[in-house]
Amino acid sequence: MTYKNKTIKKHARGNWFVRIRVNGKYISIYGRTKQECYEKLKVVADKVEQEKWLAKLAGITATPIAQTVAVAPTVPTVKAYTLQEWFDEWLATYKGNLRANSVNGYKVFFKHFAELGGLPLTDITSVMLARVLNEKQLCRQAKDGMKSMLKQMFSAAHNDKLIDSNPTLHLPRPKATPPVRARNALTAEQEQRFIETALADLAKYEPLLICLLQGVRKGEMLALRPNDLDFERNTLRIDESYDEQNPDDLLTKNADSNRKMPMFELTRKILLKYAKAEPTKRIYERVSAAQLYRRLAELQAKANLPKFTVHELRHTFITRCHEKKIDEMIVQRWVGHQIGSRMTKAVYTHISNDAEREFIELLNAKTA
Fold first, then answer.
1. CATH topology for 76-180?
2. Domain 188-367 architecture
3. C-alpha–C-alpha distance, residues 99 and 95, integer Å
4. What is the mean pLDDT of the chain?
5. For residue 266, what are the CA distances in angstroms to 82, 191, 309, 331, 365?
6. Which of the 8 DSSP states describes residue 63?
7. Which terminal residue of the chain, N or C, has fewer Cβ atoms less than 10 Å from its own Cβ?
């Protein structure tokens, strides 16, 4: 699609853009769709042409139209951008193709900079950003994520000539906050108490037990459907993840998370009752996150266990695998962890089926 010989192109990030020369400087115009970008371009290009025609008619230099872009909806002038406005524009334009969970993650990060949100983008300094990062009582991983977001935001702003200098170029790494409680795995004895207590009231604790027995993530467990269960081959298919905050976004964490893993014996006994259930209906659709957390707290009290999270059941599964000397590549395949290198991946894909069956029997013996 073109207008006034200006061609609208699709950006690698999924949005659309076009560049137009205004008073000797190029201005980038973005849109979430090609049509939106076209409408914005039309407003700006027509204004530029009108200014040139008037200047020629009057025999004078065209009046600067630095505010031209503001005519187009949602595209403010350089001076009009506050930090909050640029974050909203950057998120929609550069991150519009991300899954809902990832977008929400950026929004959570940016909330920590709300005190700076009303300031002009051009007034933000590295000292301001560093102060906010260092004052927040957050883990190292969260702070590094926030810094990465800032670097992407200001780099895009600098490339689009919205700011003369990038305040994140020399932004130091945020100071570490005293560590929070480390994630731990249950001991073998604690795990056995967990299993016995869960089996005693399976109607209530079944979802938690599946997380432990199969090492699946909470969202992966909540997304399970009867057609994911293959009782002939004893396999479990994981290719969706459910989040009640974003029920329409069923993507798993990454491509490596999509997998087939063994359905261990105790899991098979528990899930066999769903063999003839409606194939595409979620097995645990009536279980909310709040219910899951309450049930976990109840189970911990009944089994006299320390407090831990649902995700630590997955840690427990992985720990048991390592204790039983199960090959690292097998564990990565089962739990959907990313394989590091091409060489590792090549080895990983050639592990024999006989070896995997031996490892399955090791875990089956634990839960028999």
1. DNA polymerase; domain 1 (1.10.150)
2. Orthogonal Bundle (1.10)
3. 9
4. 82
5. 57, 14, 22, 19, 10
6. P
7. C
